[in-house]
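A note from the maintainers: we've had questions about how concatenated examples are separated. There is no special marker in the raw files; a new sequence line simply starts the next protein. For clarity in this README we add a label.
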Amino acid sequence: MKDQVLVVGAGAGGMLAAGRAAEMGADVLLLERTNRPGNKLLLAGNRRCNLTNAKDLEDFVAMYGPNGRFLFSAFGSFFRDDLLAFLERYGVETKTEPDGRVFPASNRAEDVVNALQRYLEDGGVRLRTGARVTSIQIAKGCVAGVEIDKEVVPATAVILATGGASYPETGSSGDGYRLAAEVGHKIVKLRPALVPLIVREMDLAKSMQGIALKNVRLTAYQCEADRIDQFLTLKADYGRGLGGRKPPRPVIESRTGEMMITHFGIGGPVTLLMSLAVVDALERGPVSVSIDLFPTLDDRHLQQRLQSEFDRHGNRFLHHLLDGLLPHKLVDPFLEMSGLPPDRLGHQITAVERERLAGLLRSLRFNIKAPLPIASATVTAGGVSLDEIDPKTMASRLVKGLYFCGEVMDLDADTGGYNLQAAFSTGYVAGEAAGGAK
């Protein structure tokens, strides 16, 4: 009989692992907790499925932070070009957008899931849905199988591809961390990543709810909001994947782009990219953020911009003047924060008051209370310690016959296709190693 490989979790990494193990000649059973494979993959990239990114290898790896170096070996075996060639083989054309993100040309995540399912069928992989693995069976330090509802399914190799703890409705319930811990693996603390942030000033956020801000700078600080240095004007971006520059203290990260004000705090692309750094900083002490609404103007030119508005429209009320500078829904809360009456005429604004307005435009501040829970995050940070996994094979260093791939490991990255590429690459390597193990 052929050796039986069990793959636990039919996500991106799990399906590729199962297909590759079958190609290596193994008898493969793919176990999925929900009623169908690829649930989270169907939601990826707003259902368009951001597969990977066009960045070169060094910049690509930098997007995972210090743990990214673990992926060099996996990327050497199966990287972007291999993934795109694989998809093309199954009829999925791809496209690269100007920002480097790679999608199916159809913009349909379903096409990627269908391609992976055909790959499984070609290899004779058996799929069992509605199967929740409750434990991994070990005999004399080696994998012997898994238990499903008190039924023991024998195996010579098990690949844990259970995903993280975000989007639990897709099957990523965090089971993999418990299963790995029960057989002796260390789990690095789980945290939400790519997640919106809750602010202490909830009423202020509610008054601005729904405002979309474009081309702004969001900066996170390791201090209370009232201690932010208003004269510390940043012109460079700082954060993971941005060249490794260290920001000036007490800055945590600073990025420019788009964000949203929500009823509970802040969200949108820039917020999500900075969220993990904020979550980790909250463990060390208070965190606040500052929004620079005019990052392309230095302080002098911002003052000149305001003075020009007041000179040209000196007979207009301040409320109407600000309506030309800010999103309409931001004007009333902005005036309330400034302490200036909305019916003050432009030519009546003093130099001191103009400086106060400029300070708010430069630094709209919130204190961060907490992130939304892991279940609401796009990605789970933390997971099975990489120190206990062989990067060349994804094999456990503790239990013979146990392998890992994807988000269950202590690997996470920014948005842009990096997390999916890591899942595909580690899945391929784990499947090859497990399928060829004797």
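[label: protein 2]
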Amino acid sequence: MNLILQGFAWIFDPAHWRASSTSAGIGEALAQHLFLTFLSLLVTVIIALPLGLFIGHSGKGRSLAIIASNVSRAVPSLGLLTVLGLIIPDIRGIQTNLIADVIVFVLLGIPSMLAGAYAGLESVDRQTIDAARAIGMTEWQILFKVEMPLGAGLILGGLRSTTLQIVATVTIASFLGQLSLGTFLIDGLTQGNFVKMMAGAILVAALALILDGLLAVVQRCVSPRGVSGGTTKGKNTARSGARAATTTGTPITEGI
């Protein structure tokens, strides 16, 4: 308990928020930690969200996506980071460590984002989708005006999970010399300064809780009335693996 209090005292010491000749400042480390988090999160969303929406809408490739997600989760993040840091060359001034970090964090975040995206669309009541088709909506209109709004809760849930995993794992970026809140853990361990290590752990945990709380508010706000936990109220007819075979309509390319 005393160590925890000392960790908080270390954080609230103004001298530790500025960089010195022997240690990075909390402000600089926090900014770099957020930069790595949001950069990795952006790349993850660009890759996983469209793929998850396609799987959820069409019902195709779900098994393959699950297998790929399980494989990526099984890869040890620190081991992969070390290997990539050693084999990736610098590209036009971009640090090798930054490229390796983003690749590792994206691979870590894709499974949750992918699962949230296709689960959100699969949660939408089949009768609602059939009704949308019956009034003449195209597949793109169904996706953007029906499925995504109704499945927004679960999609944002996937984003929350992805954000938590990435923001916590960014701490290992300091293993290869990248500045982050994990720097205080690495430096504290090297120097035998356990108060500094505790301060670093508190900062990472606090940042994760703040981001999760903000996304929880957003998730609650985007969930439409009558939708609980991303699932429409009432009985939701189970979807088959081949969604297109159970309904009438044209492929998703319609309306382009």
